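Exercise: predict the fold of this chain.
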Amino acid sequence: MGDTLFDKCMQVYYDEWQFKHPQPQDLRVVLERESGKDLSWLFDEIIPTTKHIDYSIAKVKTDEKGTRLRLKIRAR
């Protein structure tokens, strides 16, 4: 998601929910709406479990913008 987009999402979340009583689902709704991303992998598969997360590097790409890593994530 990146820092800039995450900060924007959190600012919207704060603006919408300040002085109210949000539930965890409310955070998910704002993050998905503002980022345009499906975050079910995080809210359904990572946060509510006690599984260990196994990361592995699937791909490395270097270009003029820098180095990018694609990770493969498995919960076990």
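Check your answer against the key: Helices lie at 3-17, 24-35, 40-43.
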